[in-house]
Design goal:
Elements lengths: L1 H14 L3 E2 L9 H4 L4 E4 L5 E6 L4 E4 L3 H11 L1 E3 L1 H6 L12 E4 L5 E5 L6 E4 L2 H10 L2 E3 L1 H4 L7 E7 L2 E3 L2 E4 L3 E7 L8 E2 L3 E2 L8 E6 L3 E6 L7 E6 L1
Parallel strand pairs: 1-9, 2-9, 5-6, 10-13, 12-18
Antiparallel strand pairs: 2-3, 3-4, 6-7, 7-8, 10-11, 13-16, 14-15, 17-18
Length: 230
C-alpha cells in the first residue's frame, strides 16, 4: 500500500510540472547535455543528484545538511561587486554553478542552467527544496550513463578511523560516518574541522588539492588518520 501511494504521489508530482529527460542524441553526451542540472531518479524514490559543470560528474545530494555542505564545497567564490553586477542573472559561463559570496558569510546561490537565474540556498532543508524544485526526472538507464564522482568512506569507531590511511584521486569526496556511541570530530588544523559528529551522523569533504592531510579527533587525540590526495 505504501509503495502504491508513493508511486501515485510521484506521478502527481511529475504532472504538476516536473520536466522529464528528453531523448538524447549520439552527437551530444548526456553528461554534457545535463551539465549543472539537478536530477531526480524517478525509479529510486526521487533520489537527488547534481551534475557538476566543473567535471560533468554526478554527486548524490542525500540529506539536507549533506546537500548544502556539498554545494558549498563545490561552490565557486565570488565577490559582492561581481555578484551585484549580475542583477539576478548570471553570465552563461556560470551556467549550473554554485556561487559562494566570500564577502557575505559564504552565502550560496545556484545558477539555474535553464534561465541563468540565481536562487539562494539558505538553511539545509530550504536549500534542498530549492534544488529539487529545478529537478529533471531521469530513468536509471540514463542516470547510469553519467559518471558518479569518486568517493571513499571512513568509519569512525571506538578503535579509530577505518581505514586509517586513505589514498584518493584529486576531486574525490570522502565521507566519515560515526559508528561509535560517543561524539567524535574530524579535525585537521588549517584544513578542515566539521565540529562534533554525533553517533550515526556523517561529515563529507571534497579534496581538490593534491597533498597529504593528517587529522585527528579533538576529543580523543589517539584517534588519528591520513588522507593522501594524488
Amino acid at each position: 500500500m505504501k509503495k502504491l501511494l508513493f508511486m501515485v504521489s510521484l506521478a502527481i508530482f511529475f504532472a504538476a510540472g516536473l520536466a522529464i529527460l528528453p531523448a538524447t542524441t549520439h552527437a551530444e553526451s548526456l553528461s554534457s547535455k545535463l551539465s549543472g542540472r539537478v536530477l531526480l531518479d524517478v525509479q529510486a524514490h526521487g533520489e537527488t543528484w547534481y551534475v557538476n559543470p566543473a567535471n560533468q560528474q554526478r554527486y548524490f545530494l542525500g540529506k539536507p545538511s549533506d546537500a548544502l555542505n556539498l554545494m558549498q564545497q563545490l561552490g565557486l567564490g565570488i565577490t559582492n561587486n561581481n555578484f551585484e553586477s549580475f542583477n539576478g542573472t548570471a553570465p552563461a559561463r556560470l551556467s549550473g554553478r554554485i556561487l559562494i559570496k566570500v564577502e557575505d558569510s559564504g552565502k550560496a546561490y545556484y545558477v539555474n542552467p535553464v534561465d541563468l537565474k540565481l536562487s539562494y540556498l539558505a538553511e539545509p532543508i530550504a536549500a534542498l527544496n530549492v534544488l529539487r524544485s529545478f529537478g529533471l526526472g531521469v530513468m536509471n538507464a540514463d542516470l547510469g550513463k553519467i559518471t558518479i564522482a569518486d568517493s571513499a568512506s571512513v568509519n569512525i569507531t571506538s578503535s579509530g578511523f577505518n581505514p586509517h590511511n586513505l589514498t584518493v584521486k584529486r576531486g574525490a569526496m570522502v565521507v566519515w560516518t560515526n559508528y561509535d556511541s560517543v561524539v567524535h570530530t574530524v579535525t585537521s588544523p588549517k584544513n578542515f574541522d566539521f565540529g562534533d559528529i554525533k553517533p550515526g551522523k556523517t561529515y563529507s569533504r571534497m579534496f581538490n588539492i593534491v597533498g597529504t592531510y593528517n587529522y585527528y579527533c579533538s576529543y580523543h587525540h589517539n584517534l588519528t588518520g591520513t588522507i593522501t590526495v594524488k
